[in-house]
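Colleagues,

For the teaching module next term, I've prepared a clean inverse folding example: a structure given as tokens, and then the sequence designed for it. I'd like students to try predicting residues themselves before seeing the answer, so please don't circulate the second half yet.
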């Protein structure tokens, strides 16, 4: 990841990311599966959702590469060509329905637990499908806590506390209400990031962080709430924001591993 840094007043260096550096690595996240690789796939990271794409193509479609970037480290991906008849039979996929995306949220090896994606084949819908698998892998049939995937609106000058081990994402908006786009992003990263919404009417928080233009997105540390990264692109897009946050999730997980902390997800 290329970056430059500057130090905000009273804080630690803020990283300004110029590019995610992920493009060349995208296809590595989707491993092509052959008949002799099924068992290895079923044993890999059993606590995470397992996602399988069945396709007649010889290359991985770009939208699926993008999805894998967003869920790197949080789900296991593999891709199967329609000619792999035995694998299609094992996972009960009719070749006439290809392309077909399936997922097993809590990987047990039981094909009866497999979910089939039946939404629009576009980036946001696929991410929402897999995010649901991440939620199920964590909570099963139980109801997640109210805070899970929630965007907290900051009305006053004091920011709410961020859960331990999570970075916080502060969205400084040019609107007064949480957008559908922000709500989608929060649900996509619900288990690993906390989301705060600062409406345009909250000038005190905006002034405290020296935000000159809106919209603006910062990532801050838990506890001290010091900025560590700022969204680098002038145009806000779903994949742009999601891939940027995915980088941060991975870096945070690596730091925690280096400190000897247990990292369940991400």
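(Answer key — instructors only)
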């Amino acid at each position: 990841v290329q970056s430059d840094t500057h130090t905000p007043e009273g804080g630690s260096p803020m990283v300004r990311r110029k590019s995610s550096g992920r493009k060349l690595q995208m296809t590595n996240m989707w491993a092509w599966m052959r008949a002799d690789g099924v068992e290895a796939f079923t044993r890999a990271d059993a606590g995470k959702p397992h996602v399988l794409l069945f396709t007649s193509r010889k290359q991985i479609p770009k939208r699926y590469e993008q999805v894998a970037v967003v869920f790197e480290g949080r789900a296991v991906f593999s891709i199967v060509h329609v000619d792999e008849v035995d694998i299609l039979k094992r996972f009960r996929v009719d070749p006439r329905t290809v392309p077909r995306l399936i997922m097993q949220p809590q990987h047990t090896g039981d094909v009866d637990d497999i979910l089939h994606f039946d939404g629009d084949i576009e980036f946001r819908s696929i991410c929402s499908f897999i995010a649901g698998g991440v939620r199920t892998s964590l909570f099963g049939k139980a109801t997640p806590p109210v805070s899970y995937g929630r965007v907290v609106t900051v009305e006053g000058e004091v920011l709410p506390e961020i859960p331990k081990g999570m970075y916080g994402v502060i969205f400084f908006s040019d609107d007064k209400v949480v957008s559908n786009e922000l709500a989608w992003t929060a649900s996509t990263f619900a288990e690993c990031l906390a989301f705060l919404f600062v409406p345009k009417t909250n000038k005190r928080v905006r002034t405290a962080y020296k935000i000159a233009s809106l919209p603006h997105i910062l990532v801050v540390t838990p506890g001290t709430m010091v900025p560590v990264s700022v969204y680098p692109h002038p145009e806000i897009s779903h994949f742009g924001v999601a891939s940027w946050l995915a980088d941060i999730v991975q870096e945070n997980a690596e730091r925690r591993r280096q400190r000897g902390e247990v990292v369940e997800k991400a």
